[in-house]
Protein 1
Amino acid sequence: MAGEFLEEVRSNMRLRGYSLPTETTYLLWIRRFIHFTGNEHPTTVHLPICLRNF
């Protein structure tokens, strides 16, 4: 599931013309956040608290 999401993000960034270093950095932080939340679905994560603790 996370792999599909990351590929969708990557595709969108390439369509918008983001540079490769920016793409790499964004995907790294997204992977870190997914790992931090325990791979939970975004609708089940209490985002304000989660972001504050991240």
Protein 2
Amino acid sequence: MVSQFYLARIALKQQQFDSALALLEATKLKDEDSVKPAQYHYWLGVTNAKLASNSSWFKAPGYASTAKSHFEQAVKLAPEFMLARKGLFRYYLRAPGIAGGSIKKAKQQIDAVRAFSELDAALLQLEFAQHEDDKALILDSAEQLFEFKDSPEALYQAGLAFQQTQNYEKAFLAFRLAYRFLPSGHLSATSHYTQLAAYQFSKTAVLAEQHLPEAIKAMQTYLTMPIEEGMPEKSWAQFRLGQLYWLSGDKAQAKRLFDEIKHAQQEQQLVKALKQFLK
């Protein structure tokens, strides 16, 4: 039943990997089902990869090998299926050689993706460069992504790469293009990446101590929007906003936000960051 496929997806999101695998293996697809075989194999690949990362050294190799087989089968069934291509690329990139990992094959996947999407290939090229910690290639990849002016994801990833390599002015440009304020003060588009770009513009302003008024506006906007799972939490956004106020000379506003953080139950990393900033 295809319903088991969707239950498996839920279990996977909840990190119930054994349950997810059992549900996927019990799924029987029919020709008329909305779930295609390539999708089925892709999610089996993802689930087995998760199990490989969370299993004993004895079981991990078996799960890893199975994950690789499913990613490869998904790509064989639907060469244009980007999720499967990316899954196989990441497997080749991250897995040890003994488990089928291969830098050469990872590069080949980038070339294969390029035949379908220059943007997706450029995103994978940056991911490859970051994995290899190749600063020159990171910057070159970021410059390539910066050319995709209509893609918030490309601009956001380029901005992060520029930020991490301390090319702050290029980071500001990329993030600014990604979130684009309207005259009303709202974002021109609301997506995962436009919202993240607003946050990262503000973080870059803290690091560079530049563009503080614009960064305050960007972070205030971030805090008015729903914060999805995986995004910087509200407490971190308040901390960054407090830093911006502090650097702007508005110590009263900064202290108000810092006091809110101190009086709430916060993760240790944030508490440590706040103490470090106030030294």
